[in-house]
Specification:
The structure is a homodimer of 336-residue chains. Chain A has 13 helices and 16 strands. By secondary structure, chain A is an alpha/beta fold.
């Protein structure tokens, strides 16, 4: 079978490709080829892999040729991120909405031409929920929570979910939308995202650097490792249509954790000296954004598929340390 | 001020235009011109009105010129209907999604050019709710019900609601989406819609003709007259931004009524001879569709705007009779 991963050069996309290559099969069939399309090149190991084809080009351009090419499964991860979409409205519409529509229409054209509907796994986000601060909002969001997106990014993700549900209902694709929680601990450097500190307060101290904590320690948020995300995306793609009982969107599991619990876990795993590198420095802008985010997820539909997040934040930190030992030991130079 | 009504040649659009002309003002300002755009000509009285401009052309073509034209308010009623969208997927996407996006982008271009954001009232539908028959569904739907559209029409309406909410949040428009219930009693002839009988079982007996009742008399459904719809659309357009407390979509009031209550009302208003012209003849296809529709609406947000549907189905029939006496007395030739 042939698998397409959009955003295949990115953090989640590359790890998804490696996981699929490692298991060799998807949805009961041997994987012959994985096509990674992105605006950026994927890591060298993937570029060198004999079963991987790399295409560095915009997704809208990629979609123009997809009508003539058979894919059995598509993981659609390519996306402009939240901050970009707020800063550049056109970019968000084009990258997140028009590109998805073009992808869906390319897959529809193939089905109308006689092909079996492709499996499509779309990476949505708990940003669909909003919440609207003017309304009472549940602390914990889940499959039955009314989405009220308060960003262009969340709006576009929600619209794509509904498009995918309708293309699926019509039989053009076999689509599923998985709402991801915040991935932590992300390797690399801090980025401009308001959620950046959720990784930074673990990553920087482990590397021997100070990290700013811009919010109160009682802030709560659902998080999961990229391993959980990749495992979940594959499981969502391999689940039967019936397992979705008429819906296409599913909220993926997360560990509902407070910042205090994250810091306690850091101390438990790496010691008080590492923990002491986290410096509280309130940032009203970031605290204000984060205050409007969900404080946790409830995910019975994902549990019914056998999906679970890490059981503790200690586990999440240990997983990050294990990844660094293999990929980048320098990132742990602050550990005792 | 200048007002644009898309779908201005249609059943609701023409009546909305007349109501606006009759009150002479909208949103506190005198109306200088109403532009009606539709694929069909509006009725003669509107064509002849000195403050009405008629443009018979597709909305996508209309939108191409809207960037160069100031409108203070837009009522966006143009839409392909449910049956059309199921039969022709492309048509639904083009008419309901691409046209709305083009309209929103034309209004955005004006705002970015320095204009005051236009008020936009969008006619959505309770078809956004679905429901999905695989899920337990509330008998009564309302502002807090999770939409799970099960038609392309409902999907497209819901997507437009979310686009309008986001363009509004960004300050490009001042948009509102009003979810309409089934309008009854519609004048004219039966059409292919599954909801057609809700009007037919009143309209045909009053005209002296037999009418088929294709569903059980215990079917319940929310309905309202076109007068309530027009009054509600204007009120939604004139409400303050604050009255929407952070949301843009609102479910309009309806009278939650059973078919039995409709028939009893017909007998009370027009007598047993008229009532006897309704002939039960079960139609499994129509009954199956209607079984998946909401059985009623709960509309506290609309009530907070002072909006209410008719208090009884007798009132709805009397309103229809009054309309016919003025416009088309022939439609009442079956009355004693």
């Amino acid at each position: 079978m042939r698998v397409l991963i959009t955003g295949g050069g990115g953090f989640v996309g590359a790890r998804l490709a490696r996981a699929l290559l490692a298991q060799g099969r998807f949805d009961g069939k041997a994987i012959d080829e994985i096509v990674l399309t992105d605006q950026f090149e994927p890591p060298a190991d993937l570029r060198a892999h004999p079963r991987v084809t790399v295409r560095v080009r915009p997704l809208l351009q990629e979609c123009a040729t997809l009508r003539d090419e058979p894919f059995d499964a598509v993981f659609h991860l390519a996306s402009a991120v939240s901050g970009e979409c707020e800063a550049d409205f056109e970019l968000g519409l084009r990258s997140n909405l028009d590109s998805t529509r073009a992808l869906l229409d390319a897959l529809r054209a193939r089905t109308e031409g006689g092909a079996v509907p492709a499996k499509l796994v779309f990476s949505s986000s708990i940003a669909v929920f909003g919440p609207d601060p003017a309304y009472p909002f549940p602390e914990i969001v889940g499959d039955d929570t009314l989405p009220m997106p308060q960003t262009s990014y969340g709006t576009q993700k929600l619209i794509c979910e509904h498009l995918i549900a309708d293309y699926t209902r019509k039989g053009y694709i076999d689509g599923r939308a998985a709402r991801l929680v915040t991935v932590t601990v992300r390797p690399g450097r801090p980025n401009g995202a308001a959620s950046s500190f959720f990784s930074g307060i673990i990553r920087e101290p482990l590397a021997g650097e100070d990290a700013i904590l811009p919010v109160s320690a009682d802030v709560r948020h659902p998080v999961a490792t990229v391993h959980t995300m990749v495992r979940s995306l594959i499981a969502v793609g391999e689940a039967s249509r019936e397992a979705f009982v008429g819906r296409s969107a599913i909220t993926l599991p997360g560990l509902n954790v407070s910042v205090q619990q994250m810091l306690d876990a850091l101390e438990a795993v790496a010691g008080p000296r590492v923990r002491a590198r986290v410096k509280p420095q309130h940032d009203a802008r970031i605290a204000g954004i984060v205050a409007n985010w969900p404080r946790g997820v409830s995910t019975p539909r994902a549990h019914a598929l056998g999906l679970h997040a890490e059981a503790s934040f200690e586990d999440i930190i240990r997983q990050y340390i294990e990844d660094c030992r293999r990929d980048n030991p320098q990132a742990l130079k602050g550990m005792d």
